[in-house]
Structure formats: C-alpha cells, structure tokens
Write a structure and sequence with these properties.
The chain has about 160 residues and is mainly alpha-helical. It contains 6 helices and 4 strands, in the order ββαααββααα. It has helices spanning about 35-45, 50-70, 70-75, 90-110, 115, 120-145, and strands at about 25, 35, 85, 90. This is Head completion/stabilization protein.
C-alpha cells in the first residue's frame, strides 16, 4: 500500500526569497551525509526556506534518525556493510535513511511555520501544513522501521 503526501507549496514575496546554496551536512561518520539541495528538490523546499532554517531542521532530523538507528551502528562496521537491495542503482538503505531525515526535517519546518508568518494567509497555510506534518512523521517512522526490518504497524487487544 502506498501513501501520497500532499505537500503544500509555500509562496512568498520574491524579495524575501533566499538563494539556496550547495551545502553538505556532515554526519557522524557512519550514516550518510545529507546535501541540502537534495532535501530542497525531493521535498519541494524552495528558497522561501532559508539555508539556516533548513540546516537546523536537517541536523535535528539526522540526530533523531541516528538515535533511532543506533542498533545498526552497533551491529555493522560501516553503513555500506548493512545488507540491502539496490533499486535504480541506489542502495535502498540510503534511500530510506534520506526519506526519514527529509520527512522529519520538513515536519519540523512545517510545525514552526505559524511562528514565521502571522498573517491570515500564513495561518491558513499553517493549517494546511498540520495534516502534512502527521503524514511526514508517519513516513519517517515507516522508513526507520523498514531499515530495522520491523513491521510498520503494532496492534494489541485492549
């Protein structure tokens, strides 16, 4: 079953738009580094999200994902040692790691959107983002569970 996330596009005054730069967020030596431009392209984060805000969100997301995947780091010498299928020439573990980080980073940004634009239009956009935040966090959790080879759903009788 696939899930589609509808990510609202943020549009602001062109005079307020920053020009994204090519930056790499270095990881801890085990997990992959993240390119900000890859986050921007994959998650439709245009220049309205400053590099500083995006960097902060990506670092926090990487720390969260790394902590949740700590057991993998304890089991394998390098990230590349983790058994994985390859799809379209890319290691599926890397794809899932990026998905988790990108989704957590965007959820973090969307949660704070209301504090950056307090206009009526900003409040309406923030309401649109609230649904997306839940979807983004769910997709990040799914990616992590997939990497750990755990089922996505847990249920119990009450």
């Amino acid at each position: 079953m696939s899930h589609v996330i509808n990510i609202p596009k943020v549009v602001v005054d062109k005079n307020q738009v920053s020009s994204p730069t090519q930056s790499t967020i270095s990881n801890n030596g085990f997990f992959p580094d993240i390119e900000l431009i890859d986050v921007r392209h994959a998650m439709r984060a245009d220049g309205t999200v400053t590099d500083e805000r995006l960097t902060f969100a990506v670092i926090e997301a990487m720390a969260t994902v790394n902590a949740e995947l700590h057991t993998l780091q304890m089991e394998y010498a390098t990230f590349d040692d983790i058994p994985s299928d390859h799809i379209n020439g890319e290691n599926l573990m890397i794809t899932r790691y990026k998905r988790a980080v990108f989704c957590f980073a965007m959820a973090n940004l969307y949660e704070r959107y209301r504090s950056f634009d307090s206009t009526k239009e900003g409040a309406e956009k923030a309401e649109q983002f609230e649904n997306s935040v839940d979807d983004l966090r769910r997709d990040a959790r799914f990616a992590i569970r997939d990497m750990l080879k755990r089922k996505r759903w847990t249920s119990e009788l009450i």
